[in-house]
Amino acid sequence: MTTKLVKRPKIDPQNAAKDPLARLRQNVRTPVMPVSFAAAMAAFSAEHRRNNRSRGNRLRDAWELAVSQVAGVPRAAKDADVRARDGKVTVTVDNPALAHELGVVYRAALLAKMKEIDNRDTIIALTVKARSQRRK
């Protein structure tokens, strides 16, 4: 359901004047304050989040299936953080060595398997990176 962003007054046709000029003057709408920009953005963001949540879940499931079906991939890769934007999937893992192994050795196989599993989304690239850890 879409949210109306501007409220407009309605003129009752039964109470409308018989004179056409008076009807035109009656149809001039008094300005009604539209909803605030923040309220409009909140409505847009809620709809956007609902659509992206299901897509994100599909990508995470596709990643887990691809990791389990490609031979030789470490099982620790299932716990990765998977995000996508414009068809480019970014996978973030905790271990830099695992990120290198997934990004260099298994990247092509994982990308092909994800494309095969999730054919609803267009996946064009796969990037694997390690989560940064600050030194104290």
Explain the overall architecture:
This protein is α+β, with helices and mostly antiparallel strands and 136 residues long. It has helices at 20-27, 37-69, 96-105, 107-117; strands at residues 81-85, 88-93, 125-130. The model has no long low-confidence stretch (mean pLDDT 81). Helix 2 crosses helix 4 (107-117). It has a 3-stranded mixed β-sheet with strand order 1-2-3, covered by helices on one side. The protein has a domain at 58-130: GMP Synthetase, Chain A, domain 3 (2-Layer Sandwich).
Short summary of the structure?
This protein has 136 residues and is an alpha+beta fold. It is 46% helix and 12% strand. It is elongated and about 85 Å long.
What does the radius of gyration come to? 26 Å
Q: Can you tell me the CATH superfamily of the domain at 58-130?
A: DnaA, N-terminal domain
Strand order of the largest sheet: 1-2-3
At CATH level 2, the architecture of the domain at 58-130 is 2-Layer Sandwich
Terminal Cα span: 49 Å
Q: What name does the CATH topology of the domain at 58-130 carry?
A: GMP Synthetase, Chain A, domain 3
What structural class do helix, strand and pairing data support?
alpha+beta
The share of residues in helices is 40-55%
Q: Give the overall form.
A: elongated
Reading off the top of the CATH hierarchy, the class of the domain at 58-130 is best stated as Alpha Beta
Strand content: 5-15%
How many strands in all? 3
Number of DSSP helices? 4
The largest sheet is: 3 strands, mixed
